[in-house]
Amino acid sequence: MSNDNTKLSRNDSTVAVVNGVQVREGVLAVPGELKLHFGGALESVSIAWRLAGPAGAPVVVAMGGISASRRVWLPDEPRGGWWHEVVGPGLALDTERYFVVCSNVIGGCQGSTGPASAHPDDGRPYGSRFPVVTVRDMVRVQRALADHLGVAPSLVAR
Q1: Is 50 exceeded by the pLDDT of residue 9?
Q2: pLDDT-based confidence at 158, cuts 50/70/90?
Q3: In the chain, what are the domain boundaries?
Q4: Closest Cα to residue 59, out of 7, 109, 8, 101?
Q5: What integer best gives the mean pLDDT of the chain?
Q6: What CATH number was assigned to the domain covering residues 13-157?
Q7: pTM above 0.85, yes or no
Q8: Where are the alpha helices (DSSP H) in 28-86?
Q9: What string of H, E and C letters represents the secondary structure of the chain?
């Protein structure tokens, strides 16, 4: 897999440019059904993501928890993101040196498919009907995102 992170779909939008660093975010509809590790399946899965950094730089994947947002670095908002002390120009995960990618995990509450998503049978939120997902399931979806973005992680921050 290429480390050329310029392969973005037309649906991706620039959120901000800070010190020449592009910040983008989007939601990827993962093609096909996701068969789950403990049985069952999700007919359609979406994964919300945000990235920042220069094209061709080493890729850092910032892993968030179930409730953490993909907005690991928010130069365009006062609170600055949930890792604002670590991610950004001149910080440990320097967005002038690294291409930082963060996504919401499936089963969470921040934009990826989860209990608040519409159930395909009736269009109502899954709620307690949402199936059990494992870290293995989450990683498979994140791998689909990496393939979509055309990136191979160089570093993983968690």
Answers
A1: no
A2: low
A3: 13-157
A4: 101
A5: 80
A6: 3.40.50.1820
A7: no
A8: none
A9: CCCCCCCCCCCCEEEEEECCEEEEEEEEEECCCEECCCCCEECCEEEEEEEECCCCCCEEEEECCCCCCCCCCCCCCCCCCCCCCCECCCCCECCCCCEEEEECCCCCCCCCCCCCCECCCCCCECHHHCCCCCHHHHHHHHHHHHHHHCCCCCEEEC
